[in-house]
């Protein structure tokens, strides 16, 4: 009878420790969002100039820090106005009458986990050659909201650290409770043995 109680208490301790460790390991395993499609697509050759550029991401995009530039070989930006964001889709309108040439979409957004992501999408209009860039040229897009982005990252990282602390504390509390239960059962067992 006593050995059943002891085994039961040991099982509770094991479950508590397992429960806590699983959540501690699983909590930080989140991936950043990524670009899943664009229009025009990477390396696409268009017969006529597009009216807009659309970027679709794997998750919702935060409103701050979104920037899109559509540049030609001279560095001219053909985007009109600010990017429009709807959930996981960012769209920019382009100036009309873009000439036949190589272009590059340079984008930077803040994914829903608070981290900035960026990339390049080359495309051409007509029979033009793809846009060639110097290898050392910076691929990032400057945004006026870098400070807000940094603050958002810091807030997300703090929240993640606090979540880990709380999960660890919960696991420890379960283990302590199970240990107390085990001690109580042993004391009762000792009292029973002494009385018999």
TrEMBL record:
Gene3D superfamilies: 2.60.40.1220. It holds the Pfam family CopC. Keywords: Copper, Membrane, Metal-binding, Signal, Transmembrane, Transmembrane helix. The keyword Membrane applies. The lineage of its organism: Bacteria, Bacillati, Actinomycetota, Actinomycetes, Micrococcales. This is Copper resistance protein CopC. It is found in: Cell envelope. Residues 149-158 have a biased composition (Polar residues). Residues 1-26 form the signal peptide. Residues 139-148 have a biased composition (Acidic residues). It comes from Microbacterium aquimaris. Residues 134-158 are annotated as: Disordered. The keyword Lyase does not apply. Residues 32-125 form the CopC domain. The chain crosses the membrane at residues 161-182.
């Amino acid at each position: 009878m006593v050995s059943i109680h002891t085994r039961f208490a040991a099982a509770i301790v094991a479950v508590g420790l397992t429960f806590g460790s699983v959540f501690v390991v699983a909590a930080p395993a989140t991936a950043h969002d990524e670009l899943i499609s664009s229009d025009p697509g990477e390396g696409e050759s268009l017969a006529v100039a597009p009216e807009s550029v659309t970027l679709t991401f794997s998750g919702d995009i935060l409103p701050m820090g979104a920037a899109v530039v559509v540049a030609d070989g001279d560095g001219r930006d053909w985007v009109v106005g600010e990017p429009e964001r709807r959930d996981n889709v960012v769209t920019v309108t382009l100036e009309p009458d873009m000439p036949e040439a190589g272009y590059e979409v340079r984008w930077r957004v803040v994914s829903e986990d608070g981290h900035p992501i960026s990339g390049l999408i080359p495309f051409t209009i007509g029979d033009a050659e793809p846009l060639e860039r110097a290898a050392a040229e910076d691929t990032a897009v400057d945004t006026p909201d870098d400070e807000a982005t940094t603050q958002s990252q810091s807030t997300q990282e703090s929240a993640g650290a606090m979540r880990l602390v709380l999960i660890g504390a919960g696991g420890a509390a379960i283990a302590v409770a199970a240990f107390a239960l085990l001690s109580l059962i042993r004391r009762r067992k000792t009292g029973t043995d002494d009385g018999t």
